[in-house]
């Protein structure tokens, strides 16, 4: 039998990199990631070609990237001296964004994808100080050790995560959140979030392929961003990707019509919604 294109969760990073390449190649791109297509490689191209219907939702990935970029810029301007990128995958922000050279950027992900990424970008120079830590975030003891070490090295850190939480159970997400909140210097966290209605749609469209690769889609809290309040964090800023994409002029006519309705901020479980949430540590 032929090997499936999406073999594991790391292969989804190849696929998502193509979305960033597609935006970069627009006439007036919202952001520029000149490394995206190289990082995606031929396998990323093949995955995208095999899921052609997903290309109509490229706006959501553009909006997600834009929103996380915005929060990074905002929090660095507010004094963050470290950015911790959980499940960093093929994110090239330390290379493509204008960042202060004094900023410490830490990427955490599985060893295999860290090795692949380092090899592809070995000739490139990041804008800030960059460290890669190869661990499995699903290992509580390993991540707590890393968080404790990083917590001693920063006064104010921003955590970012994209395309991570949706693959975890609610209990796993809360456990991760509590581990992060246990570090006083980890002040804010920007993460993407999916609600139950969107999760159901995604499971129908691509869920079987991801499930076969051992990466089923799971997390979509009915209470939306308020889910994190019981796990040591409170939402301070919430942006839906549909409405963000509308402001960025990335929607087709049909989707522009949907964007005329108010942003539910993820608080209506039956209304399809995905967005990016900025959380603030809420533990004294």
Distinctive features:
single chain; 284 residues; alpha/beta; Rossmann fold; 10 helices; 41% helix; globular
Strand line-up across the major sheet: 3-2-1-4-5-7-6
Helix-strand category: alpha/beta
- CATH topology, which one? Rossmann fold
Stretches where pLDDT is under 50 for at least 5 consecutive residues are: none
CATH H-level homologous superfamily name: Vaccinia Virus protein VP39
Descriptive account of the structure:
It is a single chain. α1 (11-24) crosses α3 (58-77) and α6 packs parallel to α7 (170-181). The mean pLDDT is 95. The chain is 41% helix and 17% strand. The N and C termini lie far apart (55 Å). It has a single domain, classed as Rossmann fold (3-Layer(aba) Sandwich), CATH 3.40.50. Strands 3-2-1-4-5-7-6 form a seven-stranded mixed sheet. α5 (111-120) links the parallel β2 (104-109) and β3. The radius of gyration is 18 Å and the shape is globular. The longest helix has 20 residues, at 58-77. It has 284 residues and is of the alpha/beta class. It contains ten helices and seven strands.
Task: Give a short synopsis of this structure.
The protein is α/β, with parallel strands linked by helices.
Question: Secondary structure elements and their pairing?
Answer:
Elements: H1 11-24, H2 36-50, H3 58-77, E1 82-86, H4 93-96, E2 104-109, H5 111-120, E3 129-134, H6 140-151, E4 157-161, H7 170-181, E5 186-194, H8 196-212, E6 233-240, H9 241-247, H10 253-258, E7 274-281
Parallel strand pairs: 1-2, 1-4, 2-3, 4-5
Antiparallel strand pairs: 5-7, 6-7
């Amino acid at each position: 039998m032929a090997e499936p294109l999406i073999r594991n969760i790391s292969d989804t990073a190849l696929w998502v990199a193509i979305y960033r390449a597609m935006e970069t190649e627009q006439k007036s791109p919202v952001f520029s990631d000149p490394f995206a297509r190289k990082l995606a490689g031929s396998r990323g191209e093949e995955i995208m070609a095999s899921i052609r219907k997903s290309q109509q939702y490229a706006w959501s990935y553009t909006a997600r990237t834009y929103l996380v970029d915005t929060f990074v810029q905002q929090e660095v301007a507010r004094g963050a001296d470290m950015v911790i990128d959980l499940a960093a995958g093929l994110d090239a922000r330390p290379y493509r964004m204008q960042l202060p050279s004094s900023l410490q950027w830490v990427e955490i992900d599985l060893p295999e994808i860290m090795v692949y990424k380092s090899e592809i970008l070995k000739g490139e120079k990041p804008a800030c100080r960059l460290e890669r830590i190869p661990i499995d975030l699903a290992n509580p003891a390993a991540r707590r050790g890393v968080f404790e070490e990083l917590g001693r090295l920063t006064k104010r850190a921003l955590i970012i995560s994209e395309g991570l939480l949706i693959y975890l159970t609610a209990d796993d997400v809360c456990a991760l959140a509590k581990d992060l909140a246990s570090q006083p210097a980890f002040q804010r966290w920007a993460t993407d979030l999916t609600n139950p209605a969107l999760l159901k749609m995604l499971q129908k469209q691509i869920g079987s392929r991801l499930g076969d690769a051992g990466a089923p889609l799971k997390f979509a809290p009915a209470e939306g961003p308020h889910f994190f309040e019981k796990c040591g964090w409170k939402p301070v800023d919430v942006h839906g990707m549909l409405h963000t994409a509308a402001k960025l002029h990335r929607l087709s006519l049909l989707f522009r019509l949907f964007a005329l309705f108010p942003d539910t901020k993820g608080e209506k479980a039956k209304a399809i919604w995905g967005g990016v949430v900025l959380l603030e540590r809420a533990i004294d």
